[in-house]
User: Fold this.
Amino acid sequence: MTTPVRVAVTGAAGQIGYALLFRIASGQMFGPDTPVHLQLLEITPALPALEGVAMELDDCAFPLLSGIDLTDAAETAFAGSNVVCLVGAKPRGPGMERADLLKDNGRIFTGQGAAIASAAADDVKVAVVGNPANTNALIAAANADGVPAERFTAMVRLDENRAKSQLAAKAGVPVAQVTNLAVWGNHSPTMVPDVDNARIDGRPATEVITDRAWIEGEFLSTVQQRGKAIIDARGASSAASAANALVDHVASWCGGQSTADGDWVSMAVPSDGSYGIPEGIISGFPVATDGVGGYRIVEGLELSAFTRSKVEATVAELQQERAAVEDML
Ligand code: NAD
Ligand code: LMR
Assistant:
């Protein structure tokens, strides 16, 4: 049998964890031929609940699940891990912004970044979900001495999926026909879903949807505020759709699902200065992936004046977040 991929998941007894682990164990993240070994981290009081989740995983008899470890020690959870999903963090409640979580959650990522550096496998890849995800990823990367910064990514795939779904509904087409949808910047209300470069059934999305007022108004605010709308409706933040987006994010990056020729996905990755987005922040970009751990920022896209001004605002917000956590970097 192929060597299992060791996948560490933090906050594994939480809402997203409960929607995520069964997808990983069933083969949806790494494909139907790749066994997985789950290394699950929780805070000590949540270990009994985590044991319950592990019992349910056992009860699924997943053929690809080669083992499950449960722990409250980060270094144990990350030992030899090839992929680390940093989910564990406080979610926001009604009336809060994700950035309000920065001080509370940021500290988690200093220790976990260091633990990844000391314990994870040499090829480790990290996907951060816990909010504010971009800046938490920056904190983890800054504390992970010796691990290349480009291995630290944050999730904006949920925003991409939300945007694709809204565009498909407006155009009256199946969602699979919406491609090339980049989300620039921060996973926050300033994020920028880029319709100008998106395609619908292979055509420029702006030729199919000509209602510019909708694109710059209702569409943008619906995507930017979707997290809040879910919290208002559910009384809790998105969980199944977040877990689904994380499966997509990792599958595209290193689970065998490379981007199709000419297409891209959205990942928040350390900026290399592309598109004038300064180095030193982790920003959403259009990214092409090879499915086996490599990705590159897609270069050469034209941004409209509208999109450019919105990207400047989201980048400024990321720089402010960075300044607020300078002591953790
Ligand atoms: P939750 O409260 O249901 O679960 C979080 C879990 O993390 C809890 O079980 C908690 O015990 C655990 N935890 C807390 N500190 C920890 C630590 N230091 N180490 C390990 N585990 C720890 O929350 P949730 O709904 O699963 O959301 C988790 C995070 O994901 C939140 O910050 C939320 O805002 C964020 N989120 C991000 C996105 C995104 O698109 N990036 C989408 C949805 C939610
Ligand atoms: C989301 O986008 O659903 C999550 O980031 C949760 C939130 O706080 O909005």
The CA atoms of residues 33 and 223 lie 35 Å apart. Residues 91-92, 98, 131, 158, 227, 230, 237-238 surround (2S)-2-hydroxybutanedioic acid (ligand 2) (CB under 6 Å). The radius of gyration is 19 Å. The chain is about 40% helix and 20% strand.
